[in-house]
Amino acid sequence: MMKRQELRALMHCCRPDLSDLTAEEARALTAGLAEDAELRREWEMLQSWDATIGRAMHDVPVPDGLADRLLAAVHRSASDDEVRPLLEPAEAAAIAEPATVTRRRWMAWPAGVAAAVLVTTALVLVALFLAGQPDNLTAAQLAEASGDWMRQLQPAAWRSSDPPLVEFPPDMSVRLNFVAWQPALAILDSQAVVYRAELPTNRATALLFVIRTWQGRQLPAIPPFWPDSTTGNVCVGVWKNAGCLYVLVVPGPASDYQRSLRSQAVA
Amino acid sequence: MCAQADQSDGSGCGKSPSPSGGGAAPAALTIDQVIASHHRAVYRYAYRLTGMAADAEDLTQQAFLVAQRKLDQIREPEKADRWLFAVVRNCFLKSRRRRRPTVETSLEVRIEDIAVESVADDPVDRELLDRALEELPDEHRLVVVMFYFEDLSYKQIAQEMGVPIGTVMSRLARAKQKLRRHFTAHGSTAR
Questions:
Q1: Alpha helices (H) in chain A, listed in sequence order
Q2: What pTM was computed for the model?
Q3: Sorting pLDDT into bands at 50, 70 and 90, what band is A45?
Q4: A67 touches B: beta carbon within 8 Å
Q5: What does CATH list as the number for B111-185?
Q6: pLDDT tens-digit profile of B34-57?
Q7: Which among A53, A58, A74 has the least Cβ separation from residue B44?
Q8: A:B CB pairs within 8 Å
């Protein structure tokens, strides 16, 4: 025969249908409830309490948009491969071991500081690097540099067919008829080609450098009406459009340069 | 009846539960389906463990990230919730141990000392229940949530947590007592 406190212990833990108990425990509790009115009263209150709390446990409002946020998180994790191995036994063991936890915490500080210093240094270096890049060059500087580019051109490298019009499109602002082209690979560390045309007035040779580069963001999007440089009786205008940096070189007076451009397409 | 959590190390997120279900052919579950079907229950379960909406959402997200990696272990979609609950439990325990590594105190209780206050069959005030659960120690709250939310028997709880049945009975009895006292102290037994 079970003692009263043993029966109470069973009452506190078993669910209504007594299925949690062994056959012997269930028989003992049933007998005890039949004999003991106070115990029966407690049992009824406990059962009522359990039912009430059991229902209330599920009464939790779910925040709006939770499913969307979860989906976004798992998809982001899948794409970035950022899923931490949450379930690795070694990590759990490390957490369970206080000494290891302490050591790692102390290690985390210098590691964090070192990481911060590295990131800061990298940012400074990137800033310095970008500051020294041609992107900060002015149109006048680029125009001046075009003299060097012209000296690099190879007379035998001119081609009259298969111009790379897709990758290096001549700007529609230029109304010259190009007759030849050649790659010019050493310009601003970027891929570039140069197109050649003859001016209708004096048959002088004009050049249009087309440089595919991210640099030159500060340049105008259309060719300047007045050339950026007129040094040596050569007019040079610089602009950037649709990912390509254009440098137009026209020998002769500014009027020849201006006649090389469509009037409605100049700044 | 339900998937059994792998508690061999007794720790939290350190382990995934054992596969849900037996020899049935694996269903082609996607994580989207699992989230759509179970996110509410998992969130509610997590909320009952943590008592905080933000923590619950974090825990829910952790559980589904684990599920994403271990999707092949969910062989019976209808039992996926139990599997996910086990993951949430493990993650919860892990986070609590990381935050507050404590030595477990004696949880034994003299059942005969527990009084049974009168209980009304009224709707439970949600905030009151939140606060009552919040005041419970993690170990007690975990047992209570497994008992009431998952509807597990104390034997199943003992098995899943890897602790003796007597310990579960003690924790459950003491936790119930604290809950009742909390409600009584606030002027209502179940309201």
A1: 4-13, 23-35, 37-57, 66-80, 89-96, 98-131, 139-152, 254-259
A2: 0.51
A3: confident
A4: yes
A5: 1.10.10.10
A6: 999 999 999 999 999 998 888 899
A7: A58
A8: 165
Pick the CATH number of B1-101 from 1.20.272, 3.40.1000, 1.10.10, 1.10.1740: 1.10.1740
Structural domain spans, chain A: 4-57, 87-131, 137-265
What average pLDDT score do residues A236-261 get? 89
Burial per residue of B89-114, b for 16 or more beta-carbon CB atoms within 10 angstroms, e otherwise: bbbbbbbbbeeeeeeeeebebebeeb
| Identity of the residue numbered B6 | D
CATH 1.10.10.10 domain residues, chain B: 111-185
Positive/negative CA dihedral, B4, B10, B12, B15: negative
Cβ under 8 Å to A: B residues 105-134: 110-112, 114, 116-124, 126, 129
Contact flag B153-A15 (C-beta cutoff 8 Å): yes
- A4 CB neighbours in chain B (<8 A) are 112
Q: Which residues of A touch B183 (CB under 8 A)?
A: none
The number of angstroms, rounded, from the C-alpha of B30 to the middle of its chain's C-alpha atoms is: 25
Instruction: State the nearest Cα–Cα gap between B23 and chain A, in angstroms.
Output: 24
Looking at residue A61, its pLDDT comes to: 92
Whether residue A66 has pLDDT greater than 60: yes
3-state helix, strand, coil in chain B (%, to 5): 60, 0, 40
The residue among B104, B110, B124 with the most chain A CBs within 10 A of its CB, best to mutate, is B124
Looking at the predicted complex, does its ipTM rise above 0.85? Answer: no
Structure tokens belonging to residue B150: 């998952």
pLDDT at B72: 81
For A11, A89, B30, B165, B174, the CA distances from B113, given in Å and listed in that order, are 14, 40, 50, 19, 10
* Cα angle: A19, vertex A22, A23; to 5 degrees: 95
Measured between beta carbons, which residues in chain B are less than 8 angstroms from residue A5? 110-112
Distance from CA of B81 to the nearest CA of A (A): 14
Q: Are strands A234-241 and A178-183 parallel, antiparallel or unpaired?
A: unpaired
